[in-house]
Amino acid sequence: MYLYRKISLLIIPLYCVFLQFFGCLLFTSFAFSQKETKSESAKIKEAQKKALRFIVFGDWGRNGEDNQRETAQGMGIIAKIFKPEFIASMGDNFYPSGVRSTRDHSWLASFEDIYTAHSLQTDWYVVLGNHDYKGNPQAEIDYTDIDRRWNMPARYYSKIIFIGNDSTQGVLLVFLDTTPFLSEYYVTSEHNVKGQDTAMQRIWLEKTLSNAPSYVKWKFVFGHHPLWTGGGRMKAAETVEMKNIFRPIFEKYHVNAYFCGHEHSLQYIKPEGFTHYFISGAGSETTPAIVHPDGGQFAKSVNGFMEVTVKDDQMEVNLINYVGENIYSITIPHP
User: Fold this and answer.
1) Same-domain check for residues 8 and 42
2) Domain that holds residue 5
């Protein structure tokens, strides 16, 4: 009995030392694990700061019909994760005939009451489409002074945004007004294009691209009409006109990508040359599309949008359908 008590007196302190030692090890391991997790989280946040993110979509304003509302909901869910710095709207913002004024009911029915997600309450940079020219285009410009997120300071305009607030990594955004360039819109008085000085806009475009500061690493142009399309307008006169007018300019000044709508589908086309072409016009009604025979990489007639991530050395474009599925991705290295 005496021996048992003596052994117990020896074992208990040793057991306590054992617990203390391994307890410290476990705590140290846990603390290190927590520190590592926080470190990884910090790295992810730092990586996010070094990228510019935005969403591109168009052809949407249908009072919530033709899957507009469902696409808006899907876009809101994805934007909550993606956290875009801005949203680029590719025209035909209000069907069938634009808006009459800044008090038109369409502002509520097709915009304010549709894109309600908190994640979509960011800057929208907007261009005009041919349907907008059936109404009062100036009203869409004037709405810039009414709604905080709506940005259309003029019929065409430009902006430089920096990647992660790095003043040495600029992205030039150029927003065009393409409808007045196309002859078919002058045939009738249905579209209010008369009086628009396309020669002046063309001079402005070349000057804006050629005078881009040295810190601009990427040049993106946004407009409503495509230069290439696998949709129903593949061989249309307007598509040929767009190509003849703008392709030489894009090539001359090394425009990295041109984003547009007009065709109600999601497409990516890379013809011979410098510029990549993206069609994102599936904000509501969809129309058939095929992969373009001249450099077409992807085409699908499905509601959705595009999310674009720009870094100093590459850009990534993801095509997302309205239920949030990534249906195509392309990574383009900086040339």
Assistant:
1) yes
2) 1-48
* 149-154: Cβ within 8 A, 24+ apart: 149/121, 149/122, 149/123, 149/124, 150/111, 150/124, 150/126, 151/123, 151/124, 151/125, 151/126, 152/125, 152/126, 152/127, 152/128
In CATH, what number is assigned to the domain containing residue 303? Answer: 3.60.21.10
Q: Which amino acid is at 329?
A: S
Tell me the mean pLDDT in the region 298-307: 98
CA angle 225, 230, 235 (to 5 degrees): 70
Distance of alpha carbon 58 from alpha carbon 43, whole angstroms: 34
> Are residues 18 and 116 both part of a single domain?
no
Whether residues 139 and 248 share a domain: the answer is yes
Residues 95 and 114 in one domain: yes
Distance between CA 239 and CA 221 in Å, rounded? 16
Write the pLDDT tens digit of every residue in 57-92.
Answer: 999 999 999 999 999 999 999 999 999 999 999 999
> Comparing C-alpha atoms, which of 187, 190, 74, 79 is closest to residue 131?
190
Residues 143 and 19 in one domain: no
Q: What is the mean pLDDT of residues 136-162?
A: 98
Distances (CA, A) of 285 to 70, 173, 246, 255: 11, 27, 27, 29
Cite the beta strand spans of the chain per DSSP E. 52-57, 86-89, 123-126, 150-151, 157-162, 170-175, 216-222, 257-260, 266-269, 276-280, 296-300, 304-310, 314-321, 326-333
* Segment 243-257, tens digit of pLDDT: 999 999 999 999 999
* Count of domains forming the chain: 2
Query: Which are the contacts of 60, defined by CB distance < 8 A and separation ≥ 6?
Result: 68, 71, 72, 89, 92, 93, 110, 283, 284
Sheet with 216-222, strands from edge to edge, namely 157-162, 170-175, 216-222, 257-260, 276-280, 266-269, 296-300
Question: Contact at 8 Å (CB) between 263 and 283?
Answer: no
